[in-house]
Amino acid sequence: MERADWLWPGGRRIAVVFNICLEAWSDGKAPGISPMGNPLPAGLLDSMAISWAEYGPKRGMGRLMEALGRYGARSTVLANAVIAERRPEVIRAAAEAGHEIASHSYAMDVIPLMLDEAQERANIRRCTDLLEQASGRRVTGWLSPRATSGMNSARLLAEAGYRWIGDTLDDDLPYLTRTAAGPIVTIPLVTDVNDMPFMKYGNPPALMLESFRENIEIALARPGDGPRLIDVTIHAHIFGRPRGAWYVERIAELAARTPEVWIGTRGEIAEGVLAREGAMGG
Asked: Is 232 in contact with 251 (CB distance < 8 Å)?
């Protein structure tokens, strides 16, 4: 198996990226899962699930920023652009705190694979405009709901000036994708450390910390394997609550005190790939 011969910034072997999913659904839509196990009759809008998701921008995002901030950790915020319409101050606060703002489509029910090319191009432009206006920053990264691209997504994002896309689970490390509109960095989503199994399967929050610890131990035990990427993916409406955020803070603490770890954003990873490949200007 071919191994990469480069290192992360500072000569570190392990990159840890905190992804905060700041999610919402379009008007008249609700999350497909929620804390309540008993389904409603078909055709009813799940008002409880909507209120559960609204916790993210209302309370969870601020708590997670505080947890990461205690250890100087910045995140990539995967934000649905509808939040920039409803709560632009949340997007602005995250950007001003040094977090990268990336697009997570307009809403969780707007999945690129379900759009034709014209609709997808319009969705990209809408999301870019909303998030840039709210954040005051350029938006250069995209990860679709359920990481599910359309067949033309990489090309359309490159056409729109995006630097990275995260809609793949096919590798351990980022790589350059060349499209008819130019290059774009593909950054795989590493799913070992993710709070969604807590929601789906009732796993205790402590298991997420243990999973992170195991990933660090494995990476340290195999220095010959080359650079390692560990994603820590947190949904603001799930682990933004006090118990979950406490464990996120413990993960940040462990990452910050491990000498081999570099904590960065997906945007920073993309720029590193582009610099190595000499594929694109600054």
From this structure: yes
Distances (CA, A) of 116 to 122, 279, 282: 10, 29, 31
pLDDT means per 10 residues, the chain with 282 residues, are 86 97 96 82 90 97 98 98 98 98 98 97 98 98 96 97 97 96 96 86 89 96 92 97 97 98 98 83 45
User: If you search the block for the tokens 């195991």, which residue do you land on?
Assistant: 214
How far is Cα 68 from Cα 90, in angstroms, rounded to an integer?
A: 16
Tokens for 19, please give them: 């992804």
- 44: its two tokens: 């009813």
* Burial annotation 224-235 (CB, 10 A radius, 16+ → b, else e): eebbbbbbbbbb
CA torsion 118-130-280-21 (nearest 10°) is: -100
Beta strands 193-194 and 182-186 are: unpaired
Other beta carbons less than 10 A from residue 204's beta carbon? 11
Distance separating alpha carbons of residues 251 and 253, to the nearest angstrom: 5
Q: What span, in angstroms and rounded, lies between the C-alpha atoms of 112 and 132?
A: 20
**Cα(245)–Cα(13) distance, integer angstroms:** 26
Beta bridge partners of 75: 18
Strand 14-22, strand 100-103: pairing: unpaired
Whether pTM exceeds 0.85: yes
Q: How many CA atoms lie within 13 A of 51 on its CB side?
A: 5
Q: Cα separation of 102 and 145, whole Å?
A: 12
